Amino acid sequence: MTARMPPEVTLLLVGAAFAAMGATYWHFYWNKEVCNGSWINFNKTALKIDLKRKLFGQHVAAQVILKAVTGFMKSKNPKKPLVLSLHGWTGTGKNFVSQLIAENIYEKGMKSSFVHLYTATAHFPHEAHIKKYKIQLQEWIRGNVSICPHSMFIFDEMDKMHPELVNSMKPYLDFYNNLDGVSYRQAIFIFLSNAGGENIVQVALDFWKLGKERNEIQLKDLETALSLSVYNNKNSGFWHTSLIDKNLVDFFVPFLPLEYKHVIQCGLAEMARKGHFPSKNLVKRMANDLNYFPKVERVFSIQGCKIISSRLDFYI
Ligand SMILES: *[C@@H]1O[C@H](CO)[C@@H](O)[C@H](O)[C@H]1NC(C)=O
Ligand SMILES: *[C@@H]1O[C@H](CO)[C@@H](O)[C@H](O)[C@H]1NC(C)=O
Ligand SMILES: *[C@@H]1O[C@H](CO)[C@@H](O)[C@H](O)[C@H]1NC(C)=O
User: Fold this and answer.
1) Lowest mean pLDDT segment, chosen from 29-33, 65-69, 263-267, 298-302
2) 95 φψ region: left (φ > 0), alpha (ψ -120 to 50), beta (else)
3) Is pTM beyond 0.85 here?
C-alpha cells in the first residue's frame, strides 16, 4: 500500500503526523493541571443544582453537604481541614456525593491529580502490614498536601480500616497551624462507611410506620441513631480512635435507605447516561426484580442504586 503512494502524499502524511504530535504536546502543556484557581474553583450554585437533580432521596444529606462544603470553601482561612463522615447502606449515594463534591471543586473532578480515593480492602488489605500502611498513608497525605493545599482525600469502606491506621491520620485532621511547615487546613477528608446504616433504616422505617412523610425526617431525628452506631459499633472504623473524642469530624452525614420510586429515578437517569431513551416500563421491570425490606411491605431497596448500571444491561 505505502509503496504505491506518490512521494508527495507520503510527505503530506508525515507532515500531518508531526502536526498531530505538536497539537498533542500543546494540548498537554497548556492543559496541565495546576493547583490554582483555574483548576480548583468551587461553585455553590452548581453543587446545589447537582445535589437537587442528580442525588435521589437524600434531602437530609444534600442539605448538610451543601452547608458544610460551602461554609468551608468560602472561608479564606479555615481553622482545620473539612472532615465529613458519610453513613448509610450501600447504594444510597455516598460515593456519588463525593464525586459531585469533587466535580464542583476541581475542574477535572475525580480525575484531578489533587483528588485521592482510597478503598480500605484494596489499598490497606493486610492487618500484618499495618505499620507499613501507616507510614505510607502519612507520606501520601503530607506529600500531596505539600504540592496542593486544596487536596481532597476520600476513604471508602472506612468501617474496614484498621483503627491504628485511622488514628495515624489524626494530626492532619486537627487544628494545627502547620506540621513541619505544611498546613493541612485547606484539605478535605471524606470518610464513607456502612456503619450506622441499620440504625438509619430503623428511623426511616419508624417514620413510614407512623404514616409520616419521608421529607419530614430531619437531621436531629437521625443524630442519635448515628452517634450511637459510631461510638458503640465495633465495626464503625472509629472504634477506639481519638477522631471522635477530639471532635475532629465536622459533620456526620446520614444517607436514608432508598425507596422504589428512587430506584426508578436512578434507573431513568442511568438509561439516559448510557445513551438510551429512558423507558419507564423497562426501568419498572428491573426495579420490581430487586430486593426490598421489610420483605412483605417492600419499602426500602436493599441494593439501592449501586447495581442498577449493570442490572439495566440485562433489560435493555
Ligand atoms: C494558574 O496557573 C497557570 C499556569 O501557571 C496560569 O496560566 C493561570 O493563569 C493560573 N490561574 C490563576 C487563576 O491564577
Ligand atoms: C456556577 O454554576 C452555575 C450553574 O451551573 C452557572 O450558571 C454559573 O455561571 C457558574 N458560576 C461560575 C462563576 O462559574
Ligand atoms: C500522592 O498520593 C498518591 C496516592 O494517592 C501517591 O501515589 C503519591 O506518591 C502521593 N504524592 C506525593 C508527592 O506524596
Assistant:
1) 29-33
2) alpha
3) yes
Q: Is residue 12 part of a domain?
A: no
φ, ψ dihedrals at 87, nearest 5°: -125, 145
CB 87 within 8 A of CB 229: yes
Residue 49 CB–ligand 2 contact under 6 Å: yes
pLDDT digits (tens, 9 = 90+) for 173-220: 998 888 888 999 999 999 999 888 889 999 999 999 999 999 999 999
Kindly state whether residues 281 and 154 are assigned to the same domain. Answer: no
Q: Would you state the pLDDT for residue 19?
A: 78
Task: Answer yes or no: is 239 within a domain.
Answer: yes
The grid coordinates listed for 198 are: 441499620
The answer on 235 and 266 residing in a single domain is no
Higher pLDDT: 265 or 227? It is: 265
Q: Please report, for residues 211, 308, 314, the alpha-carbon distance to residue 244 in angstroms, rounded to integers and kept in the order given.
A: 35, 35, 44
Backbone angles phi, psi at 171, to 5 degrees: -55, -30
Atom 11 of ligand 1, residue of closest alpha carbon: 38
Cell 452517634: give the residue: 227
39 CA to centre of ligand 1 in angstroms: 8
How high is the pLDDT of residue 2?
A: 52
Beta bridge partners of 251: 84
As a three-state string, the secondary structure of 116-179 is EEEEHHHHCCCHHHHHHHHHHHHHHHHHHHHHCCCCEEEEECHHHCCHHHHHCCHHHHCCCCCE
Q: Is 95 annotated as a binding residue?
A: yes
Instruction: Name the residue of 38, 41, 108, 150 to mutate for ligand 1: max ligand atoms within 8 A of Cβ.
Output: 38
What lies within 8 Å, CB to CB, of 1 at 6+ separation is none
pLDDT band at 23 (very low <50, low <70, confident <90, very high): confident
Distance CA 64, CA 52 (A): 13
Q: Are residues 165 and 183 in the same domain?
A: yes
